[in-house]
Amino acid sequence: GGGGGGGGTKRSLLKEQAKSHAKVLREQGVVRMDNVLSSELADSLRDTIYATRIQTEQLVADGKLSMQARFADVLLTHNRRDMTLPIGDGPEEWTAQALQSILLDSAVGATIENLLGKSAILREWSCLMSDPGSQRQVTHPDTPWQEEPVLYTCFVALQDITKDMGPTTWLPQTHTQEMHQRFQDESVGGSGGGSDAVSSKDRLLSTQPSVLGTLPKGACAIFDSRLLHCGGANQSSQNLSRALMYCSFQNPQVTQVGNPGSIRSNLIGKWTLQ
After folding, report:
1. How far is the C-alpha of 45 from the C-alpha of 159, rounded, in Å?
2. Degrees (nearest 5) of the Cα angle 180, 170, 115?
3. Rounded to an integer, what distance in angstroms lies between the CA atom of residue 24 and that of residue 222?
4. What is the pLDDT of residues 75-121, one digit of tens each?
5. Which residues make Cβ contacts (< 8 Å) with residue 179, sequence separation at least 6?
6. What pLDDT digit, counting tens, does each position of 142-151 carry?
7. Is the confidence at residue 60, as pLDDT, over 70?
């Protein structure tokens, strides 16, 4: 009885945390959670992922595997890799353990359930690696604006992310229709259009407050796919690659997502939060 009670207490605690995280996500479009993965698990996942990346790149170089079979498209590919992950047992059990830890042992799963319900569909399961020398991306949303939330993405840091490693920049509260209209307006208004005239888009990008994803190891950021954001340039003084393990869940009510998801073809539409 005692163990079951403890489990129930933890579940209700996670539910309470999820409620407040979901509120922040609705209002701001991004929220941070710490200790989603233990430090030990983050280290071991990072080691396994980079070893897998080396093996996979060799298989691609040898012509035994197509690039598309294991690496998704990513904005500005130079020194960036978006490696899709399996969900399996046996040698691939480590990824299932990671996903379980993220979704069930922290408030991540309950937060997404609060927003999208139990039928939310696993849309992406991948690891984004930005090596030293990778450039800053342009600011972008992951999906075009729609009335309903489309996806929620959870980025989990597999190491401490310092400022020089090019953390993600998010622009809170830019997941609205008004913000997307301003973002798409590149016309320069005003009389005369002098050298000091700027577009609605440039004004938005230069004045909208931003938050920087300098996450400690094992922490995560969950964000609305409509939110404006960009990956930074990795200029790590210690020559460190930045790894973000991530999953995205799709609103089951939304049929048109826009961009293809970073997920292995055999996993498309197979998994939900249930």
Report:
1. 10
2. 75
3. 10
4. 546 688 999 999 987 778 899 899 999 999 999 999 999 999 999 99
5. 173, 204, 208, 228
6. 999 999 999 9
7. yes
* Separation CA 161–CA 103 (nearest Å): 21
Q: Residue 71 in contact with residue 82, Cβ under 8 Å?
A: yes
Residues 157 and 42 sit within 8 Å (Cβ to Cβ): yes
Angle formed by the axes of helices 93-104 and 108-116, nearest 10°: 70
pLDDT digits (tens, 9 = 90+) for 163-206: 999 999 999 999 999 999 999 999 986 544 455 689 999 999 99
Is the pTM of the predicted complex or chain greater than 0.90?
Answer: yes
The DSSP bridge pattern shows strands 242-250 and 151-157 to be: antiparallel
**Position 1 confidence tier, pLDDT thresholds 50, 70, 90:** very low
Residue 173 CA to residue 208 CA, distance in Å, equals 9
| 220-224 vs 151-157, strand pairing mode | antiparallel
